[in-house]
């Protein structure tokens, strides 16, 4: 992020990669998890692929007192947009560079 001049987004990007990768490891059934990070046209895009078709993350109600299941809530709160590939193998999110500029 620093090499792109986007140090202000580094903490959010790190947290989102961590949450998305953790979700992939916990809920995916593949032997490996991969991620891709790109920056273009004022937008950072993070993609995590768990290789498991049909594993769509879901936003759950946070008022239930559960001790887990907050990863998608964090994703939904921090990302400008997020979603999954049609087959559910890849979860992606975007962050706007413009929102991080003080």
Protein model, in words:
With 102 residues, the protein is of the alpha+beta class. It has a single domain, classed as Heat Shock Protein 90 (2-Layer Sandwich), CATH 3.30.565.10. It has 2 helices and 4 strands. Strands 1-2-4-3 form a 4-stranded antiparallel beta sheet, with helices on one face. A hairpin with a 5-residue loop joins strand 3 and strand 4.
List the strand order in the largest sheet: 1-2-4-3
Provide a count of the helices.
2
Order of helical and strand elements: HEEHEE
How much β-strand is present in the residues?
15-25%
Seen as an oligomer or otherwise, the chain set is: single chain
Mean pLDDT: 84
Radius of gyration: 14 Å
The CATH architecture would be 2-Layer Sandwich
Report low-confidence residues grouped into runs of 5 or more.
none
- The amount of helix comes to 25-40%
The third-level CATH topology is Heat Shock Protein 90
Q: In terms of structural class, how would the helical and strand content be classed?
A: alpha+beta
**CATH level-1 class:** Alpha Beta
Q: Give the tally of β-strands.
A: 4
For the record, give the distance between the C-alpha atoms at the N and C termini, rounded to a whole number. 16 Å
Question: So, the CATH homologous superfamily?
Answer: Histidine kinase-like ATPase, C-terminal domain
Instruction: Let me know the largest β-sheet.
Output: 4 strands, antiparallel
Judging from the principal axes of the Cα atoms, what is the shape?
globular
Query: What is the total number of structural domains?
Result: 1
